[in-house]
Design a protein that fits this description.
This protein has 306 residues and is of the alpha/beta class. The protein contains 12 helices and 5 strands. It has a 5-stranded mixed β-sheet with strand order 3-2-1-4-5, sandwiched between helices. Helix 5 crosses helix 6 and helix 6 crosses helix 7.
Length: 306
Amino acid sequence: MGTLSTGSRYLKKDTRVLQRSKVERFACIEKYSSCLPVSRLCRLYGVQRSGYYAWLNRAPSLREQMNQKILSRALELADQCRGVYGYRKLWQALLCEGFCCGKNRLCRLLKRVGYKAQLVVRKARYCLEGGLMPQPNLLDREFNPSQINRVWVSDITQVACREGWLYVSIVMDLHNREIVGFECSRQVTADIVLKSLQKGWKKAKPDLTHKLLFHSDQGSQYRSERVMSWLTKRGVTISMSRKGNCWDNACAESFFSLLKKECTRKLGLITCSEMAREIGLYISCFYNTIRSHRVLGYESPVGFRS
């Protein structure tokens, strides 16, 4: 619309304002009414003052009323998901509730009120240490197995706490992106991987008649003799990402990005025990059971499995 100065000389020379529609001119008058008298603005924009006040006191149109309903419900859904969802997932949620609106329309409404989904943060990196020889990359980025308990992926990340770093190990079933096992510890050793595997095995109960592929990076925790022996005894095929290639384990990396931006980043520096409890609640009560995933057709991992 352009910025108006308080000098009438500049305003009188700006003939472009008269080329706008009346609604646009009324909107300009409303915008600058705190700086200049309404009567003066009406003369400058070439409209009647009575017409401006009639426009100002008009009843909202049916579209404006619907926009308000859509925006109000979208913000409620955004609040329920802790500000995690972007406009695409909010749009899908609205469609499921029977709202009739376009994706771009919702995007414009959310931009109008300044709503933004949270940003992604970087994953911590690790230096490789000693261990057994790494295994070949058998997964080869095939991230969509047709059944559960066919491909598990795992990774470790670190979260800053008041006492120092808290390390988190997860085991994910690629079929429905469900976290079947996780473990938090102050020390990043093979124990954290073993405990997350044991929890996942106890929860998911894989069928030993079908081969299970377990994929991870080449970290020393995954190349430890205890972890590889535990997997081999159960007939699990071991696969590892290529050295320095995070995309080979993209799904686990993506989960840690979500965990940090949707959960731990908001908490600040709290104790390790408090952080471990919050991470457990996020995984069990939100990520696995409620949070929708675009790759799953906007269903939660548990909903997609059932």
